[in-house]
Amino acid sequence: MPTTVTVDMKYCFGIDALKHTFDFSNRNMPVLIYAPNGVMKTSLAKSLRSYVNGKQPEDIYFPERDSVLSVADETGAAIDPDSIFVIDSIDEKYQSSRISTLLASEDLKARYDEIFGSIAEKKESLLKALKKPSGLSKDIDLAISTAFKVRPEDVLVALARLEREVKEGAHAHFSSLKYKILFSEKVLEFLQNGDVKSLIDDYTKIYEQIIDQSMYFKKGVFNHSNAETIAKNLKANGWFDGGHSVNLNHDGKRSEITTDSELVAAIDAEKEKILTDPKLAEMFQKVDGMLTTAELRSFRDYLIENPFVVAELSDIDAFKQRVWISYLVENDKAYFDLISEYDSSKEKIRDIISEAEKEQTRWESVIAQFNDRFSVPFEVRVENKGDAVLNVSAPQISFYVKDREGGAARKTERSTLDRGLSTGERRALYILNIIFEVEARKKARIETLMVLDDIADSFDYKNKYAIIEYLNDIRREDNFHLVLLTHNYDFYRTVRGRIGIYGDNKLLCNRLNGALQLIPDRLSDNPFEDWKQKLNDPVVLVASIPFVRNLTEYVGNIDLFSKLTSLLHVKEDTKNITIDDLARIYEAILAKGAYTDFSAKGGTVFDLVMSACVDICERGNDDLRLEEKITLAIGIRLVAEEVLIKTINDDDYVKSISNSQTGKLIRKFEKMDGCDGLTLATVKRVALMTPENIHLNSFMFEPILDMSGHHLVSLFQDVKACAEGVH
């Protein structure tokens, strides 16, 4: 088991550079990565998928650059691509290729294989023999299943049903025909043409009328096919050699035939007389005139050589079956060898399949687990359990939609089901195939690096917790090592707590000087608890203000709430509130001894905010902690509002604003004559990046965590430049 996996990549699908070692040495703890949208998440998954597929990643925007990607264990050896399983956020077409390996009983399969092996061998011999007469080089069983309208796996059953006709030598005169020429895709398409069908129907009617007037043949009773079969059988059984003869009757007159050559000549003469009839020749010319392409002209030439075929084309499906039967007649030994073996084994196979139906398979366990854990409006079942257990065919998954009015669940096609499912429900169905793949890998003991790209996106909370529970099950498997990627901070936080991921295995994605880096997430599950012990740090103190402000609101202290609001929006007293004033507010709201003392700092809070922001900007690092991002957001808003208030220059209007102050100031500024475009663009960026995001009740600061540190620094510098312009 690898204890570490190192990924080293350059110019891969938008990632300029990234090198990181994922460490699974601590009890196989998963690696959890929080990556804000647009940073690296999908690019990493896509790069690893290329590695799995044996393809080289590329730079999307600069394809001329040489992409580099290596995935190695702690010894430096490359990880086997088959050992990496990349799971997209959703892929509705994905289906595990290993599902059929989840068999309940190897003993049953071995018994079945032993019995069916001889059948399969004889079936292969027959199919091989049928290649020459049909002209088909492959997919003989598929062509037979299409002709007899059965599933490919049911070809053997279809062949067994033809035993009587083959024994009787039915349709033997068709055995010289080439299936490949008569029933090519182009020919079949041509025969579906309405005008062609009409012409063939007319030809067939005339042909049947002429047959009725024949000396020897009679429609539906005795045709030239029957006559040729009799001639062939008489010769094969030495009828004429034994001194016997045959009498042919016509209008009460008898013609005695004493040799097989005389009989064949009589049949051929009567057949030639029918096929050269002027009316039939005229109709044939009309059909011939519609055969224009090279492939159709080959078909035309074939009809000229075998004109009796035209009358058969009026029922193309029946004709296909007759042709296959004629081939079986010609290869009757191989056919009867197969049918004999099949008949003698049917009872044994039936008993084994009956036993298989009673087996509890691993994929049934998967389905039961899925039906129990995931909340979806349908139930999953396996329909062909016996065949699937014996690996005769892949398991057929069926879906039964639950009746909300209490009726029986209704079997529904997958295509119909998809139209009625939400994105989250379709994603749950996708998870079913993921579980199949995981279980198959468990069974095969394939050591697997699983990379999951936002696997729970669009899930409701019940299904989100269901997938987290399943991931927790997988992490206990020694052979599975999980790397979880997400842009959803709420999911990140939930997984971190429920699966127990801590230390350097909880990572944040950060961009530094064009390259990506995965840095340990030092934010505790409760950052406020941590901050209360570090209020002597100016940045932490400023970042804690929105939290304490929310607490004043929750306890109903409106005066203190208003005072702290003046530190988040520019009010009359904003620049007069001192750090000592802030200390007294904290003393009134927080329990004594629950936080560090910061009252000795002196000065105003506004000045502290501005100096803290400047210090953050001067550090020149995009990797900003949560408290640094919140401090910058507060500073940005205060400077922006100061610029707007000075520019608007309307004290009465500003005093009248009771809520949503930043947005209202921007709208007022936008309507002013001579509104400065650059300033307007800057303050609109402020509106986009800072409202609500600095408050406690915003998914634990998720929006501001998603923001790039670089963008916040840049925005602070831009609003400061606007302020200097106003001064």
TrEMBL record:
Listed SUPFAM superfamilies: P-loop containing nucleoside triphosphate hydrolases
Coiled coil: 339-373
Domain of life of the source: Bacteria
Keywords: Coiled coil
InterPro entries: P-loop_NTPase (IPR027417)
Protein's name according to its UniProt entry: Uncharacterized protein
Organism from which the protein derives: Paracoccus alkenifer
